[in-house]
Every structure is written in C-alpha cells, then in structure tokens.
Give the backbone structure.
Amino acid sequence: MKIAVCIKQVPDTTEVRLDPKTNTLIRDGVPSIINPDDKSGIESALKIKEENPEATVTVVCMGPPQADVALREALAMGCDDAILISGREFGGSDTYATATIIASGLKKVGFDLIITGRQAIDGDTAQVGPQIAEQMKIPQISYAEELKVEGDSVIVKRQFEDCYHIVKAKMPCLVTALSELAKPRYMTVRGIIDAYEKNITVLGFDDLKDMLNPEWIGLNGSPTNVVQSFTKQAKAKGTKLTGLTDDEAVEAIVAKLDELHLI
Amino acid sequence: MDFKLSKTHLLQQELYRKFAEEEIKPLARDMDENEAYDMELLEKMKKLGFFGIPYSRTYGGEGGDNLSYVLCMEEVSKQDASTGITISVHTSLCCSCINDFGTEEQKQKYLRPLVDGSKIGCFGLTEPNAGSDAAGQQTKAYKDGDEYVINGSKIFTTNSGFADTFVVFALTDPAAGTRGISAFIVEKGMPGLSVNANIPRMGIRAASNCVVNYDNVRVPAENLLGKEGSGFKIAMKALDGGRIGIGAQAVGIAQGALNEAVKYVKERKQFGKPIAAFQNTQFKLAEMQTKIDAARLLVWRAAVAKDNKENYSVYAAMCKLMASEVANEVTRECVQLLGGYGYSREYPIERMMRDAKITEIYEGTSEVMKMVISGSMKLK
C-alpha cells in the first residue's frame, strides 16, 4: 500500500500580520512549521504503516525550496520518502490551481491512500484536500477523527456538526485529517540524521507538463482573486472582572449574558 | 570559520527544545520537590535516542556527534538540570569508558544496550576520601581465579539508583599509586552490590545520586576495562569529555533562567511601567546574554575539537570553568530581577540557582579546571 501525506509549511503564529501594501502575510522572523492538521495526517499514516509493514509513506509538499525543512522533519518522524513540488510557474496559484498541480504530481507517482490535513492555519480554506480528490476523480472523506484500513478500503469516523458519520471508501481515495486524528510523534535523533542523508524528489513544471496545461496553474489558472485583505480592528476593549470567587464569577458572567439577551 | 549550526544540528536542536518544553518543563518542579526522577519521562527520552547521541550505529548508537550531544544537554538543562546530568553521566562518563577502552565483546555486551536506550549507566570514581584527589582511592579489587573481587564504597554516584551498568574504579595494586587503579564493569544484581538512598542535596534534586557499596562483589575477569592499572587514565579521559557536557548543562541552566526573567520583566509593572523599560533591567539582561553566548561558544569549540579528534582537554576545562561561573552569576542575577517572586518556589528560577552551584563542583571543581588550564600554559 502506497500512502501519500500532503503537507503545507505554514508560519507558526496565531497573530498573522499582513503587509498593508501587498495584502500578503509578513513571514519575516516568523518560524515555519508543518501545518498541525497535516502533522496529524503524518502520524496516522505512520500508524497504518506500523500495522501494515509493507506500506510506504511518502510526504508531499508544494512550496518554495525552503519547504525542504518541513519534508526533512516528516522524514525524521519516520516517513519513507519525500516529494517537493516546486517551480516558478506554480507561484500565485489559488487553492484550485494548487490542487490541480498537486493532483498531477500524485497521479504521476500513483498512490492508494492520500491523506491531507483538513485545513491550513494560514489560509484556513479547507479546500485543497477535497479539490485534489475531485481532480483525481477518487472518493474523499473529510474531517477524519479516526481512520483504519480494512482490506482495500478505509473506514473513517467523520466528524459532523452534532454527530459522527462512519464512512467506508475503497482505495484509491483521499482522507482529510483533523488534529484530533492522531497526536504527532516526535522526530527521533536517528531519524533526523538519516533525514538529511535521503534524497528529496523535486517535481517542477517540466516534470509535470504532460499533465498540466499552463493555463490551469499560477495566477492565470486561479479563478479566485483576493480583492482586499485587512486586519480586523477590535471594536472595544473587553471587560475584565477581577477579585471574584469562583461562585461570584459564575454569577457575574451569567448576569452579563442575561443582560445582553444571549441566554 | 563558520559559527552556524548545520541543518542536521538545527533540526536536532528543534527536537530537543520542543521535547524539553512540552515534556520536561511540566514535570521539573514536582521532580525537584519529590527528589525523584520521573521514570516515564526517562523511558520517553530513551526511545527518542537521547541516551546514545554521539555513539556509532555499529554499536546501536544514534550516529550523531558531540556537537549534537551538547545541543541536547543545553536544551534539556534549560528546563531541568537534573535531566541534563542524568543524560550526561550515562553518555559522557559511563558509555565513553566502554566505547574508548572496551574490547569488542565488552562493547557488544555492555555498550550496545546502553547506547540503544535499553539500559542506563553510571560511573563510580568519587569516594568519601577521594574527590579532587581521585588518586586517593580506597576501594580495592583483587584477582581470585578468573574473577576480580571488589570491596569498598563510592559516594555521589549519579544515576546509581536506577542504573543497570556501573563502571567502577578500584585499586588493584595499592603500592603503585595512580598506576594501581583499574576500571571494572559491574552489573546491577551482582551479589554484594548495593545502592543506598538518594543523598539529600541543595540542587539537581531529581537526579539519583547515592552511596554505592561493593561488598565482595565478584566480577568475571573479562569485565576488567582496559588493562590492569589503566583505570586512572580511563577515568581522566572520561572526565575530560564529561566536562564539555557539564559546560553545556551550565549554559542551559543560565539560558533557561534568562528566558524566564525576560518573560517576567515584560509582564511585571512597577512605578507605572514594565520593569523591562528600565535601563538597569535592559543592561543586566544584555550583559547576561553576552556572557551566556561567550560560554556557549567555548562549549561548542570544545565539542567540535572532540569531534575533529583534536586535543580538547584544555578547551573542555575552559568551557566548564566559564560556563559554570556564568550559570551561577546569571541565575543569581535573575532571582534578583524577579525579586520576591524569584525567591519563591512558585517560579523555577530559585531551582535553577540551586542547580547551578553543582556545575562548579562535579566532574572537576573550578579549581581543578584552573589546574588543567594553567598546566597547559608552560608556567613551570
């Protein structure tokens, strides 16, 4: 069984600041990490591999060459190999174009199970995973909280608003992972040393051009245009209640909610 | 000359830092209060490879180097110096003796389980009457057929409470002075080997540090490490390397305390503004960070020299002397910056101040470091 885990390298911050001129994220001085949902996807793939020793786990990332360190981290956790999808032609792609590019890379290599994170903490769209499945014309199960492999199928406990769905899909298929799916393991010392001995396969536009129309990628292939981004201003300072006992605090909060007709 | 860490070292540093922040930090205070190390935490670190970093894959180690090892020592010691010494005594003292002087059979039998994370090692040199004067050993061993019989007792043996493998030094020829000392590998469970309760201490209280008694302990002759009479040389070489780890531990303690102080001065308000806004605070922190960086560079120089198979013994002594003094000064100043809260056991800095003191004492006191350094200066 060949498993691919798609990961994204994202800035490690909840306080994302925007450049007011370009409306893009200021990434300077912000450390990069593997997107948390994606990391949970890596862990669940590694667990499947532990139970199915013949399985291989390939980590796949589309991004600039600096995304190398995210792939090395995934290798150091125990992934078998890594693919970096990278090229100037891919710059400016929205989620649709990104999914088109990643899907072409995944099709080229061929996988039985593709795991992506539910959504990335920088863009928060939750679109790329499902779009990859659509582009590849394979079944998809999103919001996975539990995942197990049974024969040639996967069985997923899918989180829904007020219930769970237990969904079975035949492989090849795609699953999007919630952070709750699996707590990521640490890298190991040995894994890190080995990670830098391994070769990372780089797929550029030339490697994928038989499957990619230049009109489908980059800015040209992106139907979404960001018209404006801005940092939301806080309307007013919050109210701070201090010096209350636990009981008094509960009463004060309930009184306030009641006053605002929220309860 | 390039002062940058390699990509492999940077990623390792990230692992050690993340693990220390997420797994060690939440336990450090309780372990200190309870004067006991958390065995689950120990198991986690064994699994990730923290106990075999600079040793060859041939014997089950991680295949890293001494620079990797000091990065680990600094990061774990930032949160808990007891974790630092537990890893250090195992790695630089116990394992290095077997790695550097053991036979192929001894390496397969004893080094492999130590560096692959199955077993923990300790090192028994110090005795009640043999500290800095390590040559004054009173523990004795004599050969009886194809066994050696060891008698005596060792004090302050770190890790001894839970160690599986003991490297111990004993006089095999009392008339021959330092050339009469031999090194042996003793296993937990051998009749006559007993470990007393943890010795109550000022700092590194979570570490295991006990009196170990050898009462007619019989070890097979093949457990002699090196040749008969080469024990003193083995011990001195191990301690030379150990000092680099202690230097890194001291840098970690200092940086850990400084990080806590930086966090505090930004939050603490007096006279209407955060105390970070006062020049006294800023200058103190600037001085401390500069000293810590200087100490760290000395530690890295010693570690890289060891990796490059250069003579590192003076570099090791210098880095330990400097880093341990910096750790004591910085932790004391950080307690001062936090004032009453620094003195309170609710904050970790008083623990760090207590932990720092030992770095000027063990694996060679500061005075011994000065003997080693001045000895290299052709003064006589």
Q: What stands out?
A: The first helix of chain B runs from residue 7 to 34.
